[in-house]
Design brief:
Elements: H1 12-41, H2 47-79, H3 88-92, H4 99-113, H5 116-136, H6 144-174, H7 180-215, H8 224-256, H9 270-291, H10 294-312, E1 318-319, E2 322-323, H11 329-334, H12 338-345
Antiparallel strand pairs: 1-2
Amino acid sequence: MSDPSVTITLDLFTVSLLLAGLLFGFALVLARRKYAFLRRASPSFDLKKLLVLSAGTACFLRILSFVGVVALDIANVRAHYSLKPASSSRSEGQQSIDRNQSFYDSSMAVLFDLPNAIVISTYVLLTLVWAECYLLSLFHTESSVRWRKRWLRWYTVFNCCLYSTQLILYILIFAGGLKSKQIVVVRSIVSVAMAGINLSAVFLVLVMYVYLSVSFSGYPYRSQSSRESLRKITGVTAFWSVGRIVWGVAMLFIYRHDVDLLRPTGSGWSPVVLFLLLVLCEIAPIIVLMDYSFMTIFNFAEQATQQLSSLATGRHVLTADGLDGGISGEDEELLPSGGEQNALAEPLLEQPAT
């Protein structure tokens, strides 16, 4: 008597995770190429390299997360386990579940939520790169090094608080006991906490934007090209901000309406909504960062230095909007020649010989 063959079916939830994993793999390849380009261009480690490395790590963790969730999903089918939906807590109350089911529920929740923190950290790091470009685009008397050290100090504090909160919540998930209601409650706390952290990060970025705009409102731009480049980077940062807001609001909506994204069956169109959220809030922002604004961010400091050198040598004209593009051929004919420039540089009155 032969054993019946095991049939594994791919539901909409699994397919959506696989498709999202492929897109994250494409973004990871982009991040790897950009990081290799930065290493060849400069051996020093700066914010731009840290930003690309952080985005690539977020993609890598998302892929591992989806692989782990799909593997547990397939194992769950073979073992005849099922992830308890959030609505079951209302009818089951304090019903006990076995240890394997408890570990399965906790592992699914942690694997799915694991990359959220580094995505938020990447978003905050992008705003620091934007702030650095903002200072480089202006003529000002402040020390850029002092501002950069201050930002890195606050970024370190933010990361410590972020990852500490994530670690504590994950410990509570696994140590929540063997009651189904306790596990669902902790998972709900994790969803609400991550949604709140997303919205709080956007609020902090908005506060920093207003503060820098007010503090440096009287300083002119170095050139029109610097202004346009900064506008491009600002657009990418705004796109990331919209993505974080949409993700945070969506997680609050999912919590409010008791939608369980981790249920492999019976979830209707929620896997499609999850796939669209991943594309809009994470995949598209990372691809836009790596492809649309990468060279602008990479060349920003070099262009700002060249423009400052051009001003020092008299090759640019300072206008109300910053430096004009440069001295044209017609204007160059009106400039004095080298001998005349030396004559103009000499004092008008000869000093009497003593």
